[in-house]
Amino acid sequence: MSAVEREEDTVRYEIENNVAWVYFNRPAKRNCMSPKLNRQMLRVLEELEFRDDVGVLVLTGEGTAWSAGMDLKEYFRETEAQGLPGVRKSQREAYTWWERLRWYQKATIAMVNGWCFGGGYGPLFACDLAFCSDDAQFGLSEVNWGILPGGGATKVATELMPMRVAMYHAMMGENLTGPQAAQYHLVNESLPADQLRARVKQVAETLVQKNWATVKYTKDAVRRVREMTYDNAEDYLIRLQEGLNWFDKSDGRHVAMKQFLDDKTFKPGLGHYDKNKTEV
Ligand code: COA
Questions:
Q1: Are 162 and 264 found together in one domain?
Q2: What is the pLDDT of residues 33-68, one digit of tens each?
Q3: How far is the CA of 239 from the centre of ligand 1 (A)?
Q4: pLDDT at 4
Q5: Are 192 and 226 members of one domain?
Q6: Of 27, 60, 171, 185, which is most buried, counting CB atoms within 10 Å of its CB?
Q7: Please, which pLDDT band fits residue 76 given cuts at 50, 70 and 90?
Q8: Ligand 1 nearest-atom number relative to CA 153
Q9: Centre of ligand 1 from the C-alpha of residue 68, in Å
């Protein structure tokens, strides 16, 4: 890769059937996250978030890596050379897009096609769902080079994995295979590499058929209630549903009730209502 890598080339995307496929696009550097990539990813996320033709965002990697974590040269060495202001600036640039992704307006899926290290756990956790190929490798490699898994990586490991597994994973710096990542809930499923895209496409296209407002409120509910007591969650979910009633301008729940109770054209237990029919 030349020294004149353009910021806008570090991420690319394509939109197909209401699904935005977003690529970490530094394959020669195993898609490690540089300040340029972090800035460009935020731009791309902002560009796609509220588009009417995007219902689901898939985050994947060009080449053999999903993301080899933070760029040791451009994110660590070169920003440290700028002192504390440089370090804090580059941290903010990374953490901002991960946070944006955690609360994204649309459903998000990590399609982990290869290496996933360290800082990569931030966007991995930020995505609502995650699928990987059996030959992907996941690692908290920080301990191998003298730092701790920061930038949320330790938090992600303990959020998703049992404590003993997270501890072993963080302390030993050994990689997990795709099937192990699925076993320890870093991802939903691990699949043979040649089946990964088809499975993710199927999940994405199923989500696209659903009511997008309902999906947004549902995914936020799952993330929020994890930190609440039962009573707080119960109360919050009442308020959230009432918020959704206002937010969903298509009045989806009444449309769906009609289709089930009156028209008898669908059963909620067996699939989604037809959101193209708007009669309540
Ligand atoms: N930071 C900076 N550069 C990185 C990088 C990272 N995290 N990961 C890969 N690269 C660069 C390499 O330095 C190399 O650059 P070069 O071609 O200019 O020499 C290039 O990407 C290809 O990497 P290479 O190591 O040759 O690829 P590989 O396929 O043999 O190995 C990895 C892939 C991911 C196992 C290996 O690159 C690696 O261990 N990367 C660091 C992973 C890590 O610890 N990340 C956590 C950071 S918090």
A1: no
A2: 999 999 999 999 999 999 999 999 999 999 999 999
A3: 47
A4: 86
A5: no
A6: 60
A7: very high
A8: 48
A9: 6
